[in-house]
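Researcher: I'm comparing several assemblies side by side, and this is the next one on my list. It has 400 residues spread over two chains. Same procedure as the others: predict the full complex and return the structure.
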Amino acid sequence: MKQLTEPELKALMLLSLDGDETAYRCLLDMLRHLLVSYYARRLGGSAAAHVDDLVQDTLLALHQRRITYDRDRPFTAWFFTIARHKLVDHHRRPGGRGHLGLEALGDMADDFREDAVAANMDVNRLLASLPAWQGEMIRQVRLEGRSVAETAAGTGRTEAMVKIGVHRGIKALAAKMRGERGEDR
Amino acid sequence: MAKTDDIIDQLVKDLQPVRKNALPRLLMLAIVPGFALSSAFILMGHGLRPDLSSAMSQAAFWAKSAYPLLLSMVGVAALIKVSRPGGRPVGAAAPVLVIYALLTMLGLLQLNSAPSPAEQHRLIMGISYWFCPLIILAAGAPLMAATFWFLRRAAPTRPRLAGFIAGGTAGSIGAWVYSWGCIENGLTFVGLWYTLGIVLCGLVGTVLGRRFLRW
């Protein structure tokens, strides 16, 4: 399934706030899948029942408290703060205590902090400015940490082409960023 | 998994549009009746100060009234902030300190120009210093109900801090209402006893927040 990113999720949320039921159903379905992996990763395999509870609880909280979403700020940061709040609450509750201690919650939801979301969007924007195949090579090799051989096999190109794509793409990005900084000055 | 499908169906069916600025609107919707109750309590249970018309020509009266009013404004802004997930009202601390410092400065000037030690004592302790924090607590109670009603519909992720701000804001508004009935003129009196009343409201809010702001 294609993973939706901040701008798309936010657009769906804004439509939902205006009362668009189709957008809302789509948003809830997307978030449900994001939440399942979010909670499953943090609770461990033994807690499948808890994962379902937490997912439902979080979707309900989104619905009941959507008035607190500030339209000028990133949606995922808002949403995963709620998800994290539900997780902390789950660990505090007697009986809900998993084998994961509260201290392990420290690094939680770091991918969704507001600055991380912004940085991620910057990277996506830069990659989108490259020819599609170069952007894809860089994403797979440099961001997702796949090997050149894997990427070549997955995309049906030769290893040499993958290497060249990454190399040229990075060079183009560097030139672009120098240009952007120059404009800022 | 089937149950999650049902829940999503329910939520979609229940979807109502949310207006822009719906959150501040909700807070105002809560505060207006709370304010009306608090005013009615002070008017009927205590009454306006008998010398109100002459007091209104004195700067000390307006300084005394401005102090809780300014705190209420900072409080309302902080309340909106803390009612959102992850909200940290860090911007509120500096204005509160500045407002308190200004009041203290004016209070010291006023003490300095007092004609006699007896008058100075009156500016600090008033006629009944113990009464003031208690009536502010009472005047703040309906407003505290209002701010908690609001927060329970919002999403504060720090229940005790949110409770403290809800209580302190309620106390500040209650103190402003009471400033129309209170006969004291001393700004040092306000700085000590009004502040004590507001802080007491904040502490009550902190305790209540732990209990009522979990979700």
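Model: For your comparison table: Chain A has two domains: 6-109, 129-184.
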